[in-house]
Amino acid sequence: MRAAFRGEPEGSACRVRRASLNALGQSLVIVPASCRIALPAVAPRFAATPMAQERFDAPSGDAIRAESPFGRVADPAWEEKTG
């Protein structure tokens, strides 16, 4: 979710999208929280797409994967593989 809070020269559209989803998630949690219902949200920093593959193959790829508690990046085809 770092992209929602940092100004960086690349990917401004992505950052706007992430910031809006973060705000939506924070707003949606208010009513259920009063009933002791938690609404966890997952916001991966990277997804395994051809556009990002160069970063994963670089020496910093392991550090990118290590940012996730799962030790990996999001897989956009996950639903196809598990559904």
Key descriptive features of the protein:
83 residues, mainly alpha, 5 helices, 0% strand, globular, 2 domains
Class computed from helices, strands and strand pairing = mainly alpha
Q: Over all CA atoms, what is the radius of gyration?
A: 15 Å
Q: Write down how many β-strands occur, each being a DSSP E stretch of 2 or more residues.
A: 0
Residue ranges: pLDDT <50 for 5 or more in a row? Answer: none
Shape: globular
Describe the structure.
With 83 residues, the protein is mainly alpha-helical. It folds into 2 domains: 1-43, no CATH class; 46-83, no CATH class. 46% of the residues lie in helices and 0% in strands. It has 5 helices and no strands. It has helices at residues 12-28, 30-34, 53-57, 61-66, 78-82. It is globular, with a radius of gyration of 15 Å. The model has no long low-confidence stretch (mean pLDDT 76).
Question: Which SSEs are present, and which pair or pack?
Answer:
Layout: H1 12-28, H2 30-34, H3 53-57, H4 61-66, H5 78-82
Short description:
The chain has helices at 12-28, 30-34, 53-57, 61-66, 78-82. It is mostly helical and 83 residues long. The chain is globular and about 45 Å long.
